[in-house]
């Protein structure tokens, strides 16, 4: 469900579960983590491009699958992915179209360049499910968007558009859907053509607060685990499953 394609020094990771709007299940998380870990250790890969297709990025977690994996410890595939993407040392580029819900949005906070189609719907509906932010979004989104806007999206869970995402800095550029994947690939290739060590050092300097990010992930996960067991969350999840 994660297709891997290496084009020169760029590794393209394509989520391909379109019948489920690219809802990420445990196997997809395992494949993404393994691919990123391999790419980090492979000197032939200088940049990773994460994408869906020109119609859909990701509708978020496959909740039933997510809940089947038990406690949110370091062995949980979702938790492993969160720490892996946060610590990924090489440039990570994203091409986003259509839905970018939950992790479909929070993963972008760990990307270095984000290109979006005009039709994107970003949303962080954690509180609507009786849950709290994840992927260090409680730390990173206020840094990018400012506190009030982050509160709007993380507390109310309101959806926002590509234009709004570009205005507050989550998205670098809005690109017509038909050109999105090619445009993001060209930017990834441009990064890969630069002196590799200079790019790695520059990213490391930009990510100098990475320990703070890891701490935020751990703190969020502890609260997330507690909220998962609450009556209000269980009621919200049951209502969600009945609708889906």
Describe what this molecule looks like in 3D.
By secondary structure, the protein is an alpha/beta fold. The chain has one domain: 2-enoyl-CoA Hydratase, Chain A, domain 1 (Alpha-Beta Complex), CATH 3.90.226.10. It has eleven helices and nine strands. The chain has helices at residues 26-41, 63-67, 77-87, 103-106, 137-145, 147-155, 162-168, 177-192, 196-206, 210-228, 231-243, and strands at 2-7, 10-15, 47-51, 92-96, 99-101, 113-116, 121-123, 160-161, 173-174. A six-stranded mixed β-sheet has the order 1-2-3-4-6-9, sandwiched between helices. Strand 2, helix 1 (26-41) and strand 3 (47-51) form a beta-alpha-beta unit. The longest helix is centred in the C-terminal third of the chain and has 19 residues, at 210-228. The chain is globular, with a radius of gyration of 17 Å. The mean pLDDT is 96. This is Enoyl-CoA hydratase/isomerase.
Q: Main attributes?
A:
244 residues, alpha/beta, 2-enoyl-CoA Hydratase, Chain A, domain 1, 3-stranded mixed β-sheet, globular
Order of helices and strands: EEHEHHEEHEEHHEHEHHHH
- Label the CATH architecture: Alpha-Beta Complex
Rg: 17 Å
Strand content: 5-15%
Number of strands: 9
Number of helices: 11
Mean pLDDT: 96
Mind summarizing the main beta sheet?
A: 6 strands, mixed
Secondary structure: helix percent: 40-55%
Strand order across the largest sheet: 1-2-3-4-6-9
Number of domains: 1
CATH class bucket: Alpha Beta
User: What general outline do the C-alpha atoms trace?
Assistant: globular
GO molecular function: delta(3)-delta(2)-enoyl-CoA isomerase activity
Subcellular location: Peroxisome
InterPro entries: ClpP/crotonase-like_dom_sf, ECH/Chromodomain_protein, Enoyl-CoA_hydra/iso
Keywords: Isomerase, Peroxisome
